[in-house]
């Protein structure tokens, strides 16, 4: 994902452009170097050619001098000395040329010095030989020795010139070989480099072309967004304004004029004109907020009233924030919203809250009456019933005893109903504090509350280890107590109740569950069960599936369970099968 975003960024295009320019410079550098090498090679060839030509001239001049000198010795004719006499000057000219050409080569400079000594020795020998000829001493041993030495010097000169020519040719060959290697590699390298550069340029062009298409698309989307914004302003009763800090000028949106009850562009957008619409009682506060905005380049939420052109008063909420564009220009972008409807709804809600508080107070008074005023006469009724049963039962007829028993049952059910209603009303209070509590302890406390019933019915209760969770402790204990009581109450006759309590933590799988992970606690029994179609009804207040003659109860217990689970943002689900048993699953969010 990061690579795709980078390949589409402006930085990527800049890098591609810089790399392309760099590669073009590299190609230019290689081309220049290649041309320089070609020029150097040409110079080397020319230099070698000149050296060889001059050396050939030198040996030619010396041969001419040698032949003329020998003809002079044989014929004594001085005309044969002309090549000898001009050879020295020509050799010196060639030597000067050779020294200039070979100045870059130390080896050739040494060879030239040696060759110069040989030539000097040759011409000295010529001079000595001429002296023998002039003195007619050509038959002496000294003349013969001198003449033989001339041949040795001439052979040394030829050998040295051949060495120099061979050295020049060898250096030329090596230089040509190196240049040839470079010549073979450079074109291929430059060609590949050029292809790569073209590829980068094509990629850049394609990216720029795509950007151009995207810009057109974005412009279309911006046009749509602008129109949608205008519509949203109209529907939401918004208006936008911009304070151009550098020029200290304002611009208003069309709907800002409408919020003020004016037509778009009805007046010049200035702060002074706008302040004319502000309610007199709010002008001072708003002016103070605007002064702070001028200093801090920021306008926090501010509330004030305006008087529209038709005289109606509207409540306004304003806000502004500083933005700096890429050119460094500062602008405070602001918004005003007509919140008169929200104010009215708030006042209405506040009135309803007062009514709700009044109702809650009445409910609290009812709870007090139920827990004190109603229970007190009920206790007296049960007390007098007990006394009648103890002292006057023998004086009652069988019908009277039956009536007395029914009164006692009704009073007992009345007490249970009052107790359950009180318990249900307590679960409606949302202000209970959540405390990290070990659920195992709450389960044990619930077991102790129904301990006598467990022993009486020989119930078997197994439970897995429960977690420690943030809960309302007394409510969760009441939840466990009601579920245990429900399983013990609706057990099969002559069959010991078996209650299994399991725990797991799992991902949400039901549509009712909105969190990702839940703590799941399940109560399963082997009781009489129920039809699955009643799975939702059993949690309704005062709803009973069985008649009160066979099973006692008020139909409030499971309603309390659902209310407790709701208070913990959880879900409780029931599943039953007649004569098989019932399962209650509690989902508490992690």
TrEMBL record:
The chain crosses the membrane at residues 12-32, 188-208. PROSITE patterns: HIS_KIN. GO terms for molecular function: phosphorelay sensor kinase activity. This is histidine kinase. Pfam families: CHASE3, HATPase_c, HisKA, PAS_3. Its EC number is 2.7.13.3. InterPro entries: CHASE3, HATPase_C_sf, HATPase_dom, His_kinase_dom, HisK_dim/P_dom, HisK_dim/P_sf, PAS, PAS-like_dom_sf. It catalyses: ATP + protein L-histidine = ADP + protein N-phospho-L-histidine. Signal peptide: none annotated. Keywords: Kinase, Membrane, Phosphoprotein, Transferase, Transmembrane, Transmembrane helix. It is an enzyme of class 2 (transferase). It comes from the Bacteria. Residues 369-590 form the Histidine kinase domain.
């Amino acid at each position: 994902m990061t690579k795709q975003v980078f390949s589409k960024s402006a930085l990527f295009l800049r890098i591609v452009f810089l790399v392309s320019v760099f590669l073009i410079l590299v190609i230019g550098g290689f081309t220049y170097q290649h041309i320089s090498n070609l020029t150097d090679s040409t110079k080397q060839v020319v230099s070698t050619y000149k050296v060889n030509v001059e050396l050939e001239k030198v040996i030619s001049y010396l041969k001419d001098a040698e032949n003329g000198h020998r003809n002079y010795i044989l014929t004594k004719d001085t005309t044969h000395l002309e090549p000898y006499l001009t050879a020295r000057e020509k050799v010196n000219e060639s030597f000067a040329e050779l020294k200039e050409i070979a100045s870059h080569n130390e080896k050739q400079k040494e060879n030239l010095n040696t060759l110069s000594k040989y030539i000097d020795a040759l011409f000295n020998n010529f001079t000595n030989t001429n002296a023998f000829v002039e003195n007619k001493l050509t038959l002496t041993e000294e003349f013969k020795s001198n003449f033989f030495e001339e041949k040795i010097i001439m052979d040394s000169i030829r050998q040295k010139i051949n060495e120099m020519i061979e050295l020049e040719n060898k250096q030329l060959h090596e230089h040509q070989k190196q240049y040839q290697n470079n010549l073979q590699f450079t074109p291929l390298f430059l060609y590949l480099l050029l292809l790569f550069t073209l590829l980068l340029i094509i990629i850049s062009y394609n990216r720029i072309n795509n950007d151009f298409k995207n810009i057109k698309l974005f412009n279309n989307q911006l046009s749509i967004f602008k129109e949608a914004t205008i519509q949203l302003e109209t529907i939401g009763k918004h208006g936008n304004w911009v304070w151009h800090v550098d020029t200290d000028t304002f611009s208003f949106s069309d709907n800002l004029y409408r919020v003020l009850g004016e037509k778009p562009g009805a007046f010049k957008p200035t702060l002074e004109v706008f302040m004319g619409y502000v309610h007199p009682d709010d002008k001072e506060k708003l002016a103070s907020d605007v002064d702070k905005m001028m200093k801090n380049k920021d306008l926090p939420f501010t509330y004030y009233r305006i008087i529209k052109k038709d005289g109606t008063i509207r409540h306004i909420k304003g806000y502004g924030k500083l933005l700096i564009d890429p050119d460094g220009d500062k602008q405070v972008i602001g918004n005003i919203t007509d919140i008169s409807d929200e104010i009215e709804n708030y006042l209405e809600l506040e009135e309803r809250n007062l009514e709700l508080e009044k109702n809650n107070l009445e409910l609290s008074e009812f709870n007090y009456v139920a827990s004190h005023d109603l229970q007190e006469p009920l206790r007296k009724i049960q007390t007098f019933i007990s006394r009648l049963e103890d002292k006057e039962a023998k004086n009652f007829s069988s019908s009277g005893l039956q009536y007395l028993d029914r009164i006692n049952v009704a009073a007992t059910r009345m007490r249970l109903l009052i107790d359950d209603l009180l318990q249900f009303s307590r679960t409606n209070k949302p202000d209970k504090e959540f405390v990290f509590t070990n659920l195992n302890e709450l389960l044990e406390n619930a077991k102790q509350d129904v301990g006598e019933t467990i022993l009486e019915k020989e119930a078997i209760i197994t439970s897995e280890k429960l977690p420690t969770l943030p809960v309302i402790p007394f409510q969760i204990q009441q939840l466990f107590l009601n579920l245990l009581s429900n399983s013990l109450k609706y057990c099969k006759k002559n069959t010991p109740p078996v209650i299994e309590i399991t725990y797991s933590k799992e991902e949400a799988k039901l549509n009712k569950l909105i969190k990702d992970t839940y703590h799941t606690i399940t109560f399963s029994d082997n009781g009489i069960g129920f039809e699955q179609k009643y799975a939702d009804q059993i949690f309704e207040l005062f709803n009973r599936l069985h008649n009160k003659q066979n099973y006692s109860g008020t139909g409030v217990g499971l309603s309390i369970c659902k209310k407790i689970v709701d208070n913990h943002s959880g879900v409780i689900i029931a599943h039953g099968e007649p004569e098989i048993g019932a399962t209650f699953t509690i989902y508490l969010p992690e």
